[in-house]
Backbone:
């Protein structure tokens, strides 16, 4: 059974229909890259996988359940298994890095403060952010903010991670760090969806790519077999040619 | 957007927030700590502003009434007029208008900034409710702190009138206070203070609605803040008439 399945997804904003008919599946342990031009609606689809957006019609199945019409309290159950990494980190700016990371642990678990401290300091060390626990998000660089955002998303050990442009605007060092974390998560068997414009990262991390063009999945292909793919639209998009 | 559509959106959006609050307010855990933080921000940090405004209002009223009534030999009525005006009307309305600017702008801009930087989405994505984490603490803090601030403003306003009465108009302090205690009965105090929970809810709910519905980045935050202050001020002034009439009927009935 697919962990994520989107069927006949349609969504309009005002008079503009952004998604005409989008369908795809993500299998257990797979990393799917959702690529496409700016404004093609990749992030909207990603947000709908966690119920932050609702489709006008169609189905969004997570672990076999259609969440498209669920209310917030029903969605909160899914959100404890599916983590979302925001493009800009979306850290709570009134809280320190420590409290940002401790937030989901305090919300959904009954850990003692000592256990929370150990978990937070552990993940900060893993992400190369030791010593930054008492800083405010505004005191961090953009790359550090993204890493903290990623750490906050995975500190609760979710089963699925959704990445929204995780490497956008990052320097090569931070891009590599994010790639390393994504690959580690894949090794652990986590399912993930990557929305990105960063083709080197998509090719390094993703198992399969889906190309979203004009509100539809135009084509998809397994990354390791791209050179054998008869449909060359993916190759054209990756090499920067107009489709 | 047309004004009519904006008014419908405001009332519809506020009603939806009220519905969500009523669904989540009694659902554990209760956000004690967040409410206390907001009471500090809304109540304690607004106190200097409220004290200055109330003192000035009392002083100006005593001076204006003193100058006017002196012509007719009615200077002795100043304590009565000043205390009744402050307790029944000026204290609650003026204080809430000042708080609509300070607190309302604070709530709308904070929530607006959180909306445009996706912090509200992050709360939802982490499986929590922005209504419980952000809106309920602010609404309850306003509901608790604003009536207390108005009660303090009433006392300070009357004392402001006392300063001018004694210093400028030559009234005896003992006479002034005696007249105040003789004139202002509990019904007058309650007629004024009972309006403030409604004003407090207006400020908190309208500002939360505008903060959460921000679109379009920092410019949107600015617009939402302005709309929150203007709308809550207008609703306080209009609501004041109906609440005054309502409590007037109740007073007559009692």
Residues:
């Amino acid at each position: 059974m697919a962990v994520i399945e989107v069927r006949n997804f349609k969504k309009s904003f005002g008079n503009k229909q952004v998604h005409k008919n989008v369908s795809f599946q993500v299998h257990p342990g797979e990393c799917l890259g959702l690529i496409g031009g700016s404004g093609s609606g990749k992030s909207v689809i990603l947000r709908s996988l966690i119920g932050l957006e609702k489709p006008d019609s169609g189905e969004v199945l997570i672990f076999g359940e259609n969440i498209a019409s669920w209310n917030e309290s029903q969605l909160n159950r899914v959100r404890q298994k599916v983590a979302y990494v925001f493009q800009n980190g979306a850290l709570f700016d009134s809280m320190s890095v420590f409290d940002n990371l401790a937030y989901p642990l305090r919300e959904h678990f009954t850990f003692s403060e000592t256990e929370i401290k150990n978990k937070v300091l552990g993940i900060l060390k893993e992400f190369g952010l030791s010593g930054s626990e008492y800083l405010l998000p505004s005191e961090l660089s953009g790359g550090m903010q993204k890493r903290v955002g990623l750490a906050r998303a995975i500190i609760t050990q979710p089963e699925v991670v959704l990445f929204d442009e995780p490497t956008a605007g990052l320097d090569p060092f931070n891009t590599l760090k994010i790639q390393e974390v994504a690959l580690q998560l894949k090794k652990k068997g986590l399912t993930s969806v990557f929305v990105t414009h960063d083709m080197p990262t998509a090719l390094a991390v993703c198992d399969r790519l889906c190309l979203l063009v004009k509100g539809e999945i135009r084509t998809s292909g397994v990354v390791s077999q791209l050179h054998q793919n008869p449909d060359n639209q993916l190759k054209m998009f990756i090499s920067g040619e107009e489709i | 957007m047309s004004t009519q559509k904006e008014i419908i959106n405001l009332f519809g959006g506020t009603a939806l927030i009220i519905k969500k609050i009523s669904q989540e307010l009694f659902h554990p855990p209760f956000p004690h700590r967040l409410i206390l933080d907001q009471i500090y921000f809304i109540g304690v940090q607004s106190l200097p502003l409220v004290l200055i405004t109330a003192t000035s209002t009392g002083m100006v009223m005593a001076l204006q009434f003193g100058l006017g009534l002196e012509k007719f030999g009615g200077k002795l009525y100043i304590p009565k007029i000043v205390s009744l005006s402050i307790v029944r009307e000026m204290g609650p309305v003026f204080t809430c208008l000042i708080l609509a600017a300070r607190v309302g702008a604070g709530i709308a801009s904070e929530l607006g900034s959180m909306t445009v930087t996706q912090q509200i989405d992050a709360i939802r994505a982490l499986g929590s409710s922005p209504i419980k984490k952000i809106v309920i603490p602010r609404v309850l803090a306003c509901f608790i702190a604003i009536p207390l601030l108005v009660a303090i403003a009433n006392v300070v306003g009357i004392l402001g009138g006392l300063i001018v009465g004694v210093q400028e108009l030559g009234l005896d302090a003992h006479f002034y206070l005696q007249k105040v205690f003789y004139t202002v009965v509990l019904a007058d105090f309650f007629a004024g203070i009972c309006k403030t929970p409604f004003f407090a809810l207006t400020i908190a709910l309208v500002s939360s609605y505008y903060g959460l519905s921000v679109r379009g980045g920092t410019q949107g935050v600015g617009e939402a803040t302005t709309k929150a202050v203007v709308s809550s001020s207008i609703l306080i002034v209009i609501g004041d008439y109906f609440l005054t009439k309502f409590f007037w009927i109740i007073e007559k009935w009692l």
Notes: Chain B is about 85% helix and 0% strand. The two ends of chain B are 46 Å apart (CA to CA). Chain B has one domain: 31-253.
